[in-house]
Amino acid sequence: MEDVVTDAPPPSRFSPEDLNNFAVPPVLPTPILVVSPNPNPPTPRLLIVLISPTSLALLSHLPSPPPLHASLLLPDLPLQSHTPIRVYLHPSGALLAAEHSAVPAHRARAAARALVSTLQPEEVLVLDAVRSGAYRGRLAADEPVEGKLETRAARRQGGVGAARGVAALAPPGSVVDGLGAAVVAECEIRGKAASMVVTWPAGARPAEFGVMRRVAVELGVDPVKAAARVSGRAVLDALYT
Question: CATH number for the domain including 102?
């Protein structure tokens, strides 16, 4: 009779790759926000997070290049030609956080926490794009759409800045994700007023959206001359189409 205790166990039916799926994932390094030295550090009232190609087009049409205020580094990502997120200091005192390269979904929450906790803005405005797949492909390719999601603090005061004139996103289900949604979630946890405005289509001109026109006026940009561009953003092409 076989001894089930001392006999050698039968060979595993799992391959080594399958067994690795049960291992504890390694702890990812914390994102690093490198802030430029400034003898008079600003106390930002408003942080504008530029994610959609349409909103990034406004950044390239500013009257003068704003100085770099901070850079967000993700140590676990391969070395790139530039950091994923750069924060610029606008002459109005607002901070402009531009997502130059897409932040992976599994790192969005950590990146959002680093931005909000370090910069400590009073209010946050996120400008993102909605994915057609979130509406099961029922969005018209040539019909501009804009809608907003807000934290409870923002709803109590009627919205944040240029988002005050935007209607609520309908339906408000799981139609947004990534860095923008993570920033709004972080602001909700911290009790900050944050509005997230998403637009469709991703490649539309800023002048086609009321929120973009109002943001352009605040930044001193002519929205009619600003054209949406996707330069070096192949990942965004896949995400928002």
Answer: 3.40.50.10900
Q: Which residues contact 27 (CB under 8 A, 6 or more apart)?
A: none
156-210: per-residue pLDDT in tens?
Answer: 988 898 888 888 876 655 567 889 999 999 999 999 999 999 888 777 788 888 8
- CA nearest to 115, candidates 77, 68, 70, 173: 70
Is 14 part of a structural domain of the chain? no
DSSP E strand boundaries for the chain: 32-35, 46-50, 68-73, 85-89, 95-99, 123-129, 145-150, 193-200
Q: Is 35 part of any domain?
A: no
- 104: pLDDT strictly greater than 80: yes
* Overall domain count for the chain: 1
The pTM of the full predicted model, rounded to 2 decimals, is: 0.79
